[in-house]
Design brief:
Elements lengths: L7 H22 L4 H27 L8 H18 L4 H30 L2 H5 L21
Helix pairs in contact: 1-2, 1-4, 2-3, 2-4, 3-4
The structure holds fe (ii) ion (FE2) (2 copies).
The site of one fe (ii) ion (FE2) has 6 residues, from helix 1, helix 2 and helix 4.
């Protein structure tokens, strides 16, 4: 399904999220020191995830409402993922899990939730969603390219 223009900034930011997961997996594969990975995780949390989740929760999820099963699932996933971002113990295992959970969440939104929103929201409703462009590159501001 073609993404409605009002949802495109979030869809574009999903690419950044998938790239983040890919990089973490690379880092784990290369056995990069976990504190280096955690620094990147913390940076991504501050600069991408907080804003992304809060935009979805404030502007997108209300279209279907908090009683909708897909929204309940999405909110549970957000909580779980935020807890992983903030976990300071068992770093390697946590980072591994984070990469899996975040990727699954993004796929769920792109393949299921956003399609459902487009099917159920009226054109008028979709047009009232104004999302400022989110940061377009997750490279900006982060120098330690441990995945290379
Ligand atoms: Fe989300
Ligand atoms: Fe998302």
């Amino acid at each position: 399904m073609k993404r409605h223009t009002s949802l495109q900034p979030l869809s574009r930011d999903h690419h950044n999220g998938l790239m983040f997961c890919f990089r973490l997996n690379k880092g784990l594969e290369k056995k990069i020191d976990e504190t280096r990975l955690k620094n990147y995780v913390d940076w991504f949390y501050e600069n991408h995830i907080q804003e992304h989740f809060s935009v979805e929760e404030k502007l997108i999820f209300p279209v279907l409402g908090s009683e909708h099963e897909l929204i309940k699932t999405a909110l549970e996933q957000h909580q779980h993922i935020l807890a992983l971002f903030n976990n300071k113990k068992d770093l390697t295992a946590t980072i591994k899990d984070l990469a899996i959970q975040l990727e699954a969440h993004i796929r769920f939104e792109e393949r299921v939730l956003f399609n459902e929103i487009q099917l159920h929201a009226s054109e008028e409703q979709l047009n009232t969603i104004h999302i400022a462009e989110l940061e377009t590159s997750c490279r900006v501001g982060w120098e330690d390219e441990f995945w290379m």
